[in-house]
Amino acid sequence: MKPFTIAENIYDVGIIDWTTRDFHGYVTPRGVTYNSYLIVDEKNCLIDTVKKPFTEEFLRNISKVINLAELDYVVINHVEPDHSGAMPELAALAPNAVFVITQQGKNEAIQHYGDIFNFMVVKEGDTLTLGKNELYFQPLPMLHWPDSMATYLKNEQILFSNDAFGQHYCTSKRFDHDLDKDILFYEAQKYFANILWPYAKLVPRALSKLQALPLKMIAPAHGAIWSDYIEEILMKYSEWGQASKSETLLIAYETMWGGTEKLARSISHGAATAGVSVRLFRLNTADNSQIVAELLTAGGVLFGSSTLNSGMMPNMGSLLVYLKGLQPKGKLAAAFGTYGWNGGAQKGMEEYMHASGFDVQSGFNCKWTPTFELDAAEQFGYEFALKIKEQNR
Ligand code: FEO
């Protein structure tokens, strides 16, 4: 059976990787897709490839539509191996294929796979005629790597956006309107937070370029195709790119003997009394990627940890190392926790928070386990929540 078409003579030849749960540290409970599209025209053109272990299935998908020898162009929007892994085998089996790529992408591809490809380097505004169809190239550097590019199919008004607008969300349906909208937008937010947050300040400029194009579809390289909710996802990217802050407080904590948990619950109560929404996560029941997804739009965050051997609990270390890479600049934050004869967790957490660009506020520390300090913890939560409310005024 032939692959699905997303428009006339445009085939979905990508891969649904239902079982992957870890994408370089990003936890993916709904799996990952590596989308690739085949445009059949006077010149046949493939948009992106897939992760290397799926090469055989991928080549079979293409071969159901055309012979590999009939492939004229392969657009490589991004060289990260989830999209380029099948390039070497494709080059060997499709000897007539020219690989269309940015100069940066060419450099990266040669480093990854050797100088074995017939390249055509493109830059912003370049076009490529396939017959009835014409492609337009729009580099989007750092969304997600320096080489990243989007390719626009003029006649059908389809933007092949690669990582931008993606979601790690496996489904046998291809379009946004066939899916649970809440899950779709949650996964899009989670994707932005975990992949694109460090480059968020580049998003407004990218959006201004893309919004100049009439769009019937945005077909990313991960997850569902946007067709009915294009305006909404563009608006969300605009919000996320400008670090919008809701009146929500995130509390992420880990506890050794329950003292830090008592503090977390009292702080939570105090903050809720001030009128903010509170989301509370113990780190042994929530993964880093989930917390980061919620943090993207939260107004502030409190990190709590017991002191273990003069430092923070290991899973708090994991979260803060992950966040240091994402650089959530300007987000209100403070640390709290408990210690015995010697502190250390709070100092360690605050060092990471400063290094991550958080707007670090005074924290709350308690010796051994809290008893009469719980009222003060409630007050601490209340006052921190007022700061969250204040920043939106
Ligand atoms: Fe989906 Fe940056 O690769």
UniProtKB/TrEMBL annotation:
GO terms for molecular function: electron transfer activity; FMN binding; metal ion binding; oxidoreductase activity, acting on NAD(P)H. InterPro entries: Flavodoxin/NO_synth, Flavoprotein-like_sf, Metallo-B-lactamas, ODP_dom, RibonucZ/Hydroxyglut_hydro, Rubredoxin-O_OxRdtase. Pfam families: Flavodoxin_1 (PF00258), ODP (PF19583). It comes from the Bacteria. SMART domains: Lactamase_B (SM00849). Residues 249-393 form the Flavodoxin-like domain. In the N-terminal section; belongs to the zinc metallo-hydrolase group 3 family. This is FprA family A-type flavoprotein. It comes from Candidatus Avacidaminococcus intestinavium. The lineage of its organism: Bacteria, Bacillati, Bacillota, Negativicutes, Acidaminococcales.
